[in-house]
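Appendix B, record 7
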Amino acid sequence: MKIIYISGAPRCGKTILANKIAKEYSNVSVLSLDSLSKSVRFVFPNFKLYTEKIAVEPDTNKDKFLKLLQIYVSNFFADFPNLTLLIEGCHFTPSEILSVYPNAKVICLGINTSISDALEAVNTSDWMRSLDENTRLEYAKKIFDYSNKARSLANDKYLYFDKSKIDFNDIKNYLD
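Structure tokens (predicted):
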């Protein structure tokens, strides 16, 4: 069983990187945690992952969502034992994934160059652009803080890249 987890704050390029890896490696199947969480919340409207309007990772029911992911992964590998599962999303920290899947390859993306870079990323999202200026700035600060925390915790167990400094050759070397 091989798992790649791409983590990081919102608007950091997780989905773009996941698509690039999937194109590079033919045996990779991608699971978007955003799509999975939206589906669960659509079917079960009382299932909440966020208690605050502005959040960069779930702050409630995270344990239940992780259990759902574990069941999904188990079923996935029962059906597709020769594939690699690439999971991307901001729902779990690298440490949380590594505690469940210690052999996972984890890549964490962030925006830690400046809050203005984080605000620029926020402004690339349609739904975030619809927020008032103060709320967008609050979101940018949360992304910046989350990114700096992730960078400070990075060690030999996972890779960390600032969004502006992603090196795909380093990623390929890490995955191969």
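Remarks on this record: The longest strand covers residues 2-8. The mean pLDDT is 93.
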